[in-house]
Amino acid sequence: NRDPLKANLKMIGEHIKKAREIAPKGILGVNIMVATQNYSKYVTESIKNGIDLIISGAGLPIDLPKIAKGSRAKLIPIVSSLKSASVILKMWDRKSNISPDAVIIEGPMAGGHLGFKYDELCGDSETNKNLVSESSHFDKEIKKIISLVRTYEVKYNKSIPVVLAGGINTKEDMEHAFSLGAQGIQVGTKFIPTEECDADINYKKAYLNINKDDLSIIKSPVGMPGRAIKN
Fold first, then answer.
1. Measured between alpha carbons, how far is 128 from 133 in angstroms, rounded to an integer?
2. CA distances from 41 to 37, 38, 89, 132 (A)
3. Which of 4, 65, 208, 218 could form a disulfide with 96 if both were Cys (CB 3.0 to 4.6 A apart)?
4. pLDDT for res 128
5. Strand 53-57 and strand 74-79: pairing?
6. 48: alpha, beta or left? (left if phi > 0; alpha if psi -120 to 50)
7. What does residue 61 show for φ and ψ, rounded to 5 degrees?
8. 78: closest CA among 131, 32, 16, 36?
9. Residue 53 class from Cβ within 10 Å (0-12 exposed, 13-18 middle, 19+ buried)?
10. pTM
11. In the predicted model, is pLDDT for residue 125 greater than 50?
12. Rounded distance between C-alpha atoms, residue 107 and residue 136, angstroms
């Protein structure tokens, strides 16, 4: 297309409309990366087409409340550390006098873009330690983030659910997330091979046929580390 932005904005509307037809009583959300070009235009177009939730990560969505001001869309930032959560919540409070409607914590085992340094994910060659192998370390970070969110619940007299994402594969993983204080979980990878997922069959087979050694950390086009399948 000679005008990619125009095409993207058009398709946002078309896909939201299609989703509404499939699930007329459902809650629809979009995940818009802060690092993407034309971020504010994508947010505005999603709101224009009646989206219910705007989830935003791959950077700090500091300006999201300003862009979405006056809309009914619920705003949900993705965080990966106490530091990022502190900055977002503080800036939303100070600049827009609002708090998030929920917070998603994406840990070091999550897929896609990750808010960690390469060494934190792959380990230092000398110590061979990393956040992935030291899950108890990140458990402490999760509890700190949840504690921070609770202070904003009190300030704004509202419930702010915390959703945990990354490496949740079993019932035990889910129960562990809830034991840390999370009120929801986010699971993506497990559902890719299902009939309901519209991915190509060969893409699904790639997920079904991999082993642990086939996963790698790459530098994505937006400059952030990400987990991907070697191919």
1. 9
2. 9, 5, 23, 35
3. 65
4. 44
5. parallel
6. alpha
7. -80, 60
8. 32
9. middle
10. 0.88
11. no
12. 12
Residue 123 has a pLDDT of 59
Question: Structure tokens of 4?
Answer: 């990619």
| Amino acid at residue number 53 | L
Instruction: Indicate if the pLDDT at residue 126 is higher than 80.
Output: no
Flag the least confident range among 65-69, 196-200, 210-214: 210-214
**Spatial contact of 13 and 49, defined as CB atoms under 8 Å apart:** yes
Among 118-122, 168-172, 176-180, the minimum mean pLDDT is found in 118-122
* Calpha distance 186→191 (Å, rounded): 11
pLDDT of residue 136: 64
Q: Which residue has the tokens 């070091």?
A: 108
Q: Inform me whether the pLDDT recorded for 166 exceeds 60.
A: yes
Question: SS3 for 73-85, per residue?
Answer: CEEEEEECCHHHH
Dihedral Cα 81, 85, 86, 87, nearest 10 deg: 110
pLDDT (tens digit, 9 = 90+) per residue, 26-83? 999 999 999 888 999 999 999 999 999 999 988 899 999 999 999 999 999 999 999 9
3-class SS shares of the chain: helix, strand, coil, % to 5: 45, 15, 40
* Residue owning tokens 């993207």: 8
Beta bridge partners, 185, equal 164
What is the four-CA torsion angle of 142, 143, 145, 149, rounded to 10 degrees? 130
Asked whether residue 228 carries a pLDDT value surpassing 90, the answer given is no
